[in-house]
Amino acid sequence: MVDTEALAHELAEALHILPPEVTVVLFAASPFLELRGAIPLAVGYYGMSPTKAFVLGVFGNLLPVPPLLFLLGRVSNFLAYRYKVFERFFTWLFDRTRDRVEGRYRKYGALVLVPVVAVPLPGTGAWTGCAAAFVFGIEHRYSFPAIVLGVVVSGAVITAASAGVLGLVG
Fold first, then answer.
1. What is the DSSP letter of 41?
2. Same domain, 50 and 72
3. How many domains, the chain?
4. pLDDT tens-digit map of 102-149
5. How far apart are CA 140 and CA 132, in angstroms?
6. Is residue 72 located within the same domain as residue 142?
7. Residue 162 lies in a domain
8. Are 5 and 37 in contact (CB under 8 A)?
9. Distance CA 119, CA 168 (A)
């Protein structure tokens, strides 16, 4: 398992030429670190206030969401049209995923995306939420607000933990 906080510190050292705020936004926008790396970095490494860390982290984490929601379908259609292996893969992925979660999706709709994004664990976050929205076929007008809500909830939990409110740090 990757220690996101240690990775964030190492990357921050490598990016020391950038202003701390830019580094935090870039970390939050990345598919691997997202808020789990950006907010602890902002609070613990750069000494930012929890409020500033939250705002920069949420802003950065939401930056890739509109392009991802807009482009995932187009890219998969292009690849499936041009390459049979992708057509088979996407057909398998969509059928398998929809079979497994269709009942939950029908019951909860786009709200199923909120915990996918909000739970601050590896394999969750805004990038995963966009991929899930694409695979489930959730319209952008429903998926975007659900992903935003998940990012805000995740940001609040990670900020509270980073600031010591949850008793998880020093």
1. I
2. no
3. 2
4. 666 666 778 889 998 999 888 789 998 998 888 888 889 999 999 999
5. 12
6. yes
7. no
8. yes
9. 16
Domain containing 20: what range? Answer: 4-62
Per DSSP, the residues of 61-103 read HHTTHHHHHHHHHHHHHHHHHH-HHHHHHHHHHHHHHHHHHHH
Q: Please say whether the beta carbons of 147 and 125 come within 8 A.
A: no
Pair (88, 109) in one structural domain: yes
**Cα(147)–Cα(134) distance, integer angstroms:** 12
Residue 22 and residue 46: Cα distance in Å, rounded? Answer: 12
Tell me, yes or no, whether 125 and 104 share the same domain: yes
For residue 164, being part of any structural domain is answered with no
- The residue whose two tokens read 């996101």 is 4
d(Cα 9, Cα 41) in Å, to the nearest integer?
Answer: 7
Do 70 and 32 share a structural domain? no
Whether residues 28 and 77 fall in one domain: no
Token digits for 36?
């789990």
29-44 pLDDT tens trace = 999 899 999 999 999 9
Tell me the one-letter amino acid at 162: S
Q: Which residues contact 18 (CB under 8 A, 6 or more apart)?
A: 26
